[in-house]
UniProtKB/TrEMBL annotation:
The gene is tnpA. GO terms for biological process: DNA transposition. This is IS200/IS605 family transposase. SMART domains: Y1_Tnp (SM01321). NCBIfam families: transpos_IS200. It comes from Nonomuraea phyllanthi.
Amino acid sequence: MAEYSDIRTGRHCVFALHAHLVFVTKFRHRVFTDAHLRRLEEIMRDVCADFEVELREFNGEDDHVHLLVNFPPKVALSRLVNSLKGVASRRMRQEFPELARHYYRASKLWSGSYFAGSVGGAPLSIVRQYIEQQTRPV
C-alpha cells in the first residue's frame, strides 16, 4: 500500500496513482545541459500544476528525462504527456535558440514515443493473492 502521505482525495474518490514517465529527444540527440534540465523541470512542474498533478521527482541526462508524477484519476496520462512535451518543446525553443538545430521538422524536440509505467502500491502478485482470498457472500 502507498504511504499515507501519498493518498489524495477527490470529490468522489480517494487515490494514490503514480506513474514513471520517460521522454527521449528526437533521434536521441544529445541536447541538454544542466541549465536546460533545470529549466525543463520548472516548465514541467508548471504544466503538472495546471493538471492538478504533483511532479514528485525529475531528473535527466543529455538525451532524455525521467518524471515521477502523482496524478488524479480524472487525468488521462496521454493528455498530460502531450502537454508536457508540447509546452516544454515550445518554451525551450523560445528560451534557448541554440537548441533549434536539434529540432526536427515542425519544431519537434521529442521523439513521438514515450514510456509510462505504473508505480507504487503492492506488487501484482500480492494484489492478485489478496483478491483471490476474498470471500464471496453466501
